[in-house]
């Protein structure tokens, strides 16, 4: 469990629907707290591409492809991974890790989220 | 019936068998001089109409400025001796021969078997008359890739022939582009045989396919070759050929090196915005493309040296293969590589020969 002084209060968990994002200030950073499929994620609201508001983007499952054999069409399916796409140019990141889905060297900082007594908090990680 | 002989008869379509040679005498300058210097003399009506009228732009001999022996297309059939003569002239020990005529296959739209028949004939002719591993003369088997079965037949035919060391795909005009799954069986077989796939550009004479109306060869020779290779590099990489066939060696020929950093930078930029459209890739396309091999000719030695150095750096000196393009008019001799100031001697050796011996297992 995180230290209480490290927690930034976001609000009641009951006020979040899937896909909702709430922006809070964590230190000097703007952080978006996002609910996807009942889980909470927190991710820096600043896109490493050109500073766009990542957390305002669409949350969806990652579309992946699998080679099914010589001459076959690549099989495309939505995986279980939740991603968020920056609304400015579409760079997309795994919500869980903040890693860019096309290049794992690019990452948006993520934060731990704590839900305590029905209230959502972001852990500053200090 | 009338008596036609005594009537007036008008024939509205007679073909006068004019020849450029006679007409040129009456042409205005500068065309008269350009024509006179173009070695198109004496061909009578059998001459290739496209050499002057625009299915092609200009004269690759630069209207008489390029005078080197063997540089022009010969009027006589090629003589196998000229291969070893040329190798002596350039001081080359091993050469990989590709078909000159096959470069135009991209222009064939007829649903017949001319490309298949030509490639089958070419394979046998070269084996019989020209290729000679003892003399260092090896061949690349042209793929009539529009017909996958025929391509597999050719691979089967050359599999145990020491003289053939790879498969050649002409990049000009390939449609659908060469990353399409349609060609998978050819790639699968090449991977199995340890046969590098050599994509060879073309396009200076097929300029109409890019955009009609260019005037001079300087325009189409610059653009056509690049466009043909770039189209296929993008398709092969984005469709994941290197992921599907990870042991397949991929080689791109004849567009110099400076286009690679520009192309991969642009492609990476697109990829970061739309990676789900290249779903087989694990990382940026540039990471795959710089694993390909690239023929160096025509090397842009007039470019800023730091640009050339950057290109060599991005591609990697272990990925560059010296190529002469001999006897074409814009050939590079080995000194083009040897005199590059940014290379050390090991890198010179690798580019001039070592890399190729490894890739083609010669
Ligand atoms: S700023 Fe986010 S994708 Fe460009």
TrEMBL record, chain A:
InterPro entries: Rieske_2Fe-2S, Rieske_2Fe-2S_sf
Keyword Iron-sulfur belongs to the record: yes
Cofactor: [2Fe-2S] cluster
Taxonomic superkingdom: Archaea
An example molecular function term from Gene Ontology annotations: metal ion binding
PROSITE patterns assigned to the protein according to its UniProt record, in alphabetical order: RIESKE
The entry's keywords: 2Fe-2S, Iron, Iron-sulfur, Metal-binding
Span of domain Rieske: 8-122
PANTHER family given in the database record: FERREDOXIN-RELATED (PTHR21496), RIESKE DOMAIN-CONTAINING PROTEIN (PTHR21496:SF0)
Protein name: Rieske (2Fe-2S) protein
Species this protein is from: Halobellus rubicundus
Automatic annotation (TrEMBL), chain B:
UniProt GO MF annotations: lyase activity
Amidohydrolase-related domain residues: 74-361
Keyword Glycoprotein in annotation: no
Keywords per UniProt: Lyase
InterPro entries: ACMSD, Amidohydro-rel, Metal_Hydrolase
Official protein name in the record: Amidohydrolase family protein
